[in-house]
Design a protein that fits this description.
Elements (H helix, E strand, L loop, with lengths): L1 H70 L1
Length: 72
């Protein structure tokens, strides 16, 4: 009976340790997913800003070319 209690105790400890390890992994995965989502959002913001800047510069260049053609 004592041997059975020892086995039960050991199995309970192993299960608890596996549960803690699973929780650590879950938290780590959630943190990684959050970082990835934040990075994706930052990249999308940068892309949008670069596109807006491109459109602005394109407009300025076209205006400059139009003014140069008119002055000739």
């Amino acid at each position: 009976m004592e041997e059975l209690r020892g086995v039960h105790r050991r199995l309970t400890e192993e299960r608890a340790e596996k549960g803690r390890e699973m929780e650590r992994r879950r938290v780590r995965i959630e943190q990684t997913e959050k970082k990835m989502a934040d990075l994706k959002e930052n990249i999308e913001v940068e892309i949008h800003a670069a596109h807006d800047e491109y459109l602005k510069m394109d407009s300025h260049i076209k205006l400059y070319i139009t003014e140069m053609e008119q002055s000739m």
